[in-house]
Design a protein that fits this description.
The complex is a heterodimer. Chain A is built from 25 helices and 22 strands. By secondary structure, chain A is an alpha/beta fold. In chain A, the strands form five sheets. Chain A has a seven-stranded parallel β-sheet with strand order 3-4-2-5-6-1-7. In chain A, strands 8-13-12-9-11-10 form a six-stranded parallel β-sheet. In chain A, helix 5 links the parallel strand 3 (about 95) and strand 4. In chain A, helix 14 packs antiparallel against helix 18. The longest helix of chain A has 25 residues, at about 425-450. By secondary structure, chain B is α/β, with parallel strands linked by helices. Chain B has three domains: about 1-95, no CATH class; about 130-320, Rossmann fold, CATH 3.40.50; about 340-425, Arc Repressor Mutant, subunit A, CATH 1.10.10.10. Helix content of chain B is about 45%, strand content about 10%. Chain B has helices spanning about 10-20, 35-45, 60-65, 75-80, 85-95, 110-115, 150-165, 175-185, 200-205, 205-215, 230-245, 260-270, 285-295, 305-315, 325, 340-355, 365-375, 385-395, 395-410; strands spanning about 100, 125-130, 140, 170, 190-195, 215-220, 245-250, 275-280, 295-300, 415, 420-425. In chain B, strands 1-2-6-5-4-3-7-8-9 form a nine-stranded mixed β-sheet, sandwiched between helices. In chain B, strands 10-11 form a two-stranded antiparallel sheet. In chain B, helix 13 links the parallel strand 8 and strand 9. The chains are: A alpha/beta, B alpha/beta. The interface of A and B includes residues 135, 145, 180 and 409 of A.
Chain lengths: ~700, ~425
């Protein structure tokens, strides 16, 4: 097909809304290369260079010449929303199907059928979804003229960011015949990743590569081991930096806590994670400077495009230089100066190590899944697997997914059930696991070197990415202070006491039911527990120590815990107010919780009744790896003593809550024996739902 | 041998042209080329010094547009555009340990090219050890609904084949096929199931998993792994079962109807890939008796592995003179065909197969042999009877009659009545 220079420029100007816009270096060359079908192209350019202009203009030119639609695969579609608007201005009908827009799927599917979509944007996870491939994609797969692989470095299993779902994309790229256009883009690719991409995308891959330096960025690393100090530092500094920015945290829990803290300090900060409901609205708010900061996990991903982003602050140290460069590189693209600050605490390494160690299933987990499937010629669903083996649901899902992405795959999904195939897992799988794990440990160490740097941060990054380090001039702004104010640190401590996690008991019995109690399906409304509270809040070192010592060393919870709990109950003020107190019994430590609960009852001026009894010894709940195993472990082990039950509302006390099955079953027993509303209370909870 | 070896560009092109590439539930908007259409296209490509992979390039598409070829060029363009769909289909198969080979692959079975010619499927899907494809074996065929005793009989054949290290080739259908296969596998033997549909389900079936992993079983089909079984496919499939074998044994057949009957008659009368035996003991049936009358050899009931092997080697046939029709097929029958003619024809075929047989068949051996026959007869200039021709060529009268009939059909000879003689049209 012919490349039409005038039309391409016209589209660029329509898209950018700038009537005299011209192509950046390399953009036009890339578009021409793709449109003329000269071969496969890899574009390596930093975020903000305008990769989206390349594929949207190429798509439009191809469509105008009568070609079929394009398919774009990108790991995080959040980045796409503002680019989709640019596409629309060019008259490119760019639509997306992703986990976040289920309500639009039917409409998008209809438009796909009518050939009213020029480019469809999907995530690799969507491409891995059988239903999507068979029901939606199959309809247009026969016409797709161009495949765009965004963040192509994820293909490389030498990459910092290798994602299992990209294994499928890798194979698509390998098998795709030469007449289908292929454009791959990435912002970061070191030499080893580049070699891998050439191996996958073909020896004739044409590469367009740009510069890595970000001259407007002032990079700084600050060591603040305690979580409280970092929270305090954030609220101190956010008040003084001009403009809006992003604060990155490693976990959802951290992101939520940071956002809550900053809001309590009167700063307009919102949390942005994979669990956030209104991600689109949050992005818009940041783009228009209507929030001071989004506190985000990596869900606010690659390529989020806000040229005037004033700062990117890391609350914890990311796992690799490439992650860090990509995230911090979002700041100050169109500004003279911007801050990139990395805070580092004690828990960082622990968290990144956890990510590294849990990235792949263990040999035991793989063995158990395969053995369970061996026993079931017709296969097992995920929930049946949870019933069959003592491995957490998340780990089972991860194991089945990774195994099914192998080639050949030892298991495949037929309908809703996983089944063994006529292939066995190759040793290559374990070799890859070991190689990747070692690689990620190396990246983690490299980040620790970076954290310890006193100067030359940008050069360090560029060198680590095999770029071309030049003498980089620093932007003309002062570095930020390295210590928080003591007054703020005190406010953090108060904040941590104030905010507690809710405990939400189950409303549905586990899959397969509880045969000994004869329970299945939904929990009847009159047997629901009320939403409860836990005393311990993540990050509160004092409480954490008291609980640990009480449980594992003294077999006695300190009086401080009783008074802290009393305070919490006063603030919580559950309604209708409980008229008595009971607790979850234990045969292993019969006095620990009972004693604590009865002291708490005395403090509250309420009667304590030991109304629940353990009638069967079971293994410890924490040894049960998934919810179904945990529920079955409680099945038939508890009973209520009718004579001891008072008809009014009750406070149900436990020390640690994990699966919440014990609480749910205890509540059902209390309610069916004539008790009033049940308010669960625990010292700590690991339950996240 | 799975898909780990990358597919050649030619194989990709052949899949794009001929395979339905069933990924989802949605129907194909464009009909893949039938084998006949495909070969028509490939002959055109060959004439122009091109191969299927060249269709992925723009110039070939342009040349095709200008060509005199009676195929819908737009349809070919649409088929070739299905590259992304192809990658999706390959992914789906690969995840289920299903491989695919095309005529363009060295791994494509020579037996199909040689015996089926233009009827050879352009693409084969399989699961298990593809090495078995060219290893021969005994084709065991029979009805689905058979008395228990015949299932036992079929199992006995499977058992003996396993002991003789001979592969059982079957249609993997219920009844006789599965009984023979099942027992052969249970005894540690090898088997090929040629499926008329449903390869994906069979490849995922637990009952086959161990044998597939042990490389003792091959499931193969010319139809998309997700294609459902249908009768038309099953008829086609029979040819492939015989083509992969060294000899065929019919355990039971309906009379004058059904796939087993049709397939057997086709072998006895026309295709003659291999010697065909019919069950010769146990309860007689109308179908089996009729097939014996029509030229099937009575199964000599070998009892030991070595006797069994001899039957497959054709040794037992020498004792049995009542099946002259098939004699010509056996190289051991010295007076069957002038050896030189056979050898030469075979030689040519093999050479040609290697040279240019990649994407489309050369002439089949029978075509080659036939043109040699025509050449030999050209020296006779007077009307000649069937017996005289048979004597001249040292072949059976039946064979001579077949060739003469074909010469008449081709308009090269005319048939004279009373007495019947053939005369060359000059």
């Amino acid at each position: 097909m012919d490349y039409i220079t005038r039309r391409a420029l016209e589209l660029l100007r329509l898209g950018t809304g700038i009537s005299d816009a011209t192509f950046r270096e390399g953009q036009e060359e890339a578009i021409r290369y793709v449109v003329e079908g000269r071969g496969r192209l890899l574009v390596v350019q930093k975020t903000g260079w305008g990769k989206s202009n390349v594929y949207f203009i190429a798509t439009k030119l191809l469509r105008e010449a009568g070609a079929g639609p394009a398919l774009l695969i990108s790991p995080l579609l959040s980045l796409m929303r503002n680019q989709i608007e640019a596409a629309e201005r060019m008259g490119v009908r760019a639509l997306t199907i992703n986990a976040g827009n289920k309500d639009e799927w039917t409409c998008v599917e209809g438009r796909l059928e009518n050939d009213e979509v020029d480019i469809l944007l999907i995530s690799p996870e969507r491409l891995a979804n059988d239903d999507f491939r068979e029901r939606v994609l199959a309809g247009i797969a026969a016409r797709i003229a161009m495949l765009v692989i965004d963040e192509a470095h994820c293909i490389s299993d030498w990459g910092h960011d290798f994602r299992p779902d990209y294994r499928r994309i890798e194979r698509v790229a390998r098998t795709l015949p030469a007449n289908i256009r292929l454009l791959a883009t990435t912002a970061t690719a070191n030499d080893r990743v580049m070699d891998d991409l050439k191996a996958v995308l073909g020896p004739n891959l044409h590469v367009l590569r740009g510069e890595l330096n970000r001259p407007s960025l002032l990079l700084q690393t600050i060591l603040l081991p305690s979580l409280g100090d970092r929270l305090a530092w954030l609220s101190d500094q956010l008040a003084s930096i001009c403009g809006s920015g992003i604060i990155y945290a490693l976990t959802i829990r951290d992101a939520e806590q940071v956002a809550r803290w900053l809001r309590s300090e009167g700063l307009n900060a919102q949390c942005y994670t994979s669990r956030s409901r209104n991600r689109k609205g949050l992005e818009q708010a940041l783009l228009r400077n209507r929030v001071k900061a989004l506190v985000a996990t990596t869900a606010l991903g690659m390529g989020f495009d806000k040229p005037d982003l004033a700062f990117v602050i890391h609350y914890q140290t990311p796992g690799s230089v490439v992650h860090y460069y990509q995230q911090v590189g979002r700041a100050g693209r169109a500004l003279k100066s911007a801050y990139g600050v990395l805070l580092s605490g004690t828990e960082d390494t622990e968290i990144t190590s956890y990510f590294i160690n849990s990235a792949f299933p263990t040999r035991d987990e793989v063995g158990e899944v395969i053995a369970a499937l061996e026993n079931e010629p017709n296969g097992l669903s995920i929930s049946q697997l949870c019933g069959a083996i003592n491995v957490s649901k998340k780990r089972i899902e991860q194991t089945t997914k990774l195994l099914s992405l192998e080639s050949p795959a030892p298991i495949a999904r037929q309908g809703y059930k996983w089944q063994l195939t006529a292939a066995q897992l190759s040793d290559e799988f374990w070799e890859r696991v070991e190689r990747l794990t070692a690689l990620r440990r190396g990246e983690q160490r490299q980040m620790q070197e970076f954290v310890a740097l006193k100067s030359g941060h940008m050069n360090f990054l560029i060198q680590a990415l095999d770029g071309n380090p030049e003498t980089t001039e620093l932007p003309d702004i002062p570095p930020l202070p390295t210590k928080p104010q003591q007054e703020t640190v005190r406010r953090v401590a108060e904040f941590l006491r104030r905010t507690r996690l809710p405990i939400k008991p189950h409303k549905k019995w586990p899959d397969g039911g509880l045969p000994r109690y004869g329970l299945r399906g939904f929990v009847r409304i009159e047997h629901w527990a009320e939403t409860g509270r836990a005393l311990y809040q993540w990050g509160d070192a004092h409480l954490s120590r008291l609980i640990r010592i009480g449980k594992y060393e003294h077999n006695y919870f300190a009086d401080d815990l009783v008074s802290e709990s009393f305070q919490l109950l006063l603030e919580w003020n559950p309604q209708p107010t409980p008229t008595w107190v009971t607790c979850i019994p234990s045969r292993r430590h019969p006095t620990l919780v009972r004693d604590f609960a009865s002291r708490l009852a005395t403090e509250l001026g309420l009667p304590f009744r030991d109304a629940l009894v353990k009638i069967d010894n079971r293994p410890q709940q924490k040894g049960m790896a998934n919810s179904i195993q945990q529920a079955r472990n409680v099945d038939g082990s508890l009973d209520a003593v009718s004579d001891l039950i008072i008809p009014g509302p009750v406070l149900l006390v436990d020390d640690m809550v994990d699966s919440r099955w014990t609480l749910t079953i205890a509540t059902w027993l209390l309610r069916t024996h004539g008790c009033g509303k049940v308010f669960p209370f625990a010292l700590a909870t690991t339950a996240t739902d | 041998m799975v898909l780990d070896a990358e597919l050649s560009a030619n194989t990709k092109a052949i899949l794009l042209l001929t395979a339905p590439l069933v990924v989802g539930k949605s129907e194909n908007s464009v009909r893949p080329l039938s084998p006949a259409e495909y070969y028509q296209l490939v002959y055109w490509l060959r004439q122009h010094g091109r191969e299927p992979a060249d269709l992925l390039e723009r110039q070939t598409g342009d040349a095709l547009d200008k060509s005199e070829l009676r195929l819908d060029h737009e349809r070919i363009g649409q088929l070739i555009q299905r590259g992304f769909l192809l990658s999706q289909a390959l992914e789906h198969w690969q995840a289920r340990a299903i491989w695919v080979v095309s005529r363009a692959d060295p791994r494509y079975p020579n037996r199909f090219k040689r015996r089926l010619g233009k009827n050879a499927p352009p693409v084969l899907y399989g699961c298990g050890d593809a090495e078995l494809l060219d290893s021969g074996g005994l084709a065991v065929v029979g009805s689905r609904e058979v008395p228990k005793a015949l299932l036992g009989y079929s199992e006995g054949i499977g058992q003996l084949a396993a002991a003789a290290k001979c592969i059982i080739v079957s249609g993997e259908a219920r009844g006789v096929d599965q009984a023979a296969m099942r027992r052969a596998l249970a005894e540690g033997g090898r088997a090929i199931g040629v499926l008329a549909g449903g390869l994906e389900n069979a490849a995922m079936a637990r009952k086959y998993r161990d044998a597939l992993l042990d490389r003792r079983l091959l499931l193969v089909s010319p139809y998309d792994p997700r294609a459902r079984f249908n009768v038309g496919n099953a008829m086609q499939r029979n040819k492939l079962v015989y083509a992969l074998s060294d000899a065929g044994l019919i355990v039971e057949s309906d009379y004058n109807k059904g796939g087993t009957w049709t397939g057997a008659i086709e072998q006895l009368n026309r295709l003659r890939f291999v010697p065909v035996f019919a069950r010769s003991d146990g309860q007689a049936s109308q179908g089996i008796e009729a097939l014996l009358r029509k030229g099937a050899h009575p199964w000599p009931n070998p009892q030991t592995p070595s006797d069994f092997q001899q039957v497959l080697d054709g040794k037992f046939l020498a004792w049995q003179t009542e099946s002259p029709r098939q004699a010509a097929l056996l190289p051991e029958e010295e007076d069957a065909v002038p050896p030189s003619a056979v050898d030469e024809a075979r030689e040519v075929t093999i050479r040609e197969a290697q040279a240019k047989d990649a994407y489309a068949p050369a002439e089949t051996p029978s075509d080659q042999l036939f043109s040699k026959v025509e050449q030999l007869l050209a020296s006779i200039n007077t009307p000649t009877s069937e017996s005289e021709v048979a004597a001249y060529l040292h072949v059976t009268k039946t064979q001579a009659r077949d060739w003469l009939k074909r010469l008449v059909r081709d308009g090269k000879y005319k048939r004279l009545e009373k007495p019947v003689r053939y005369d060359r049209i000059l």
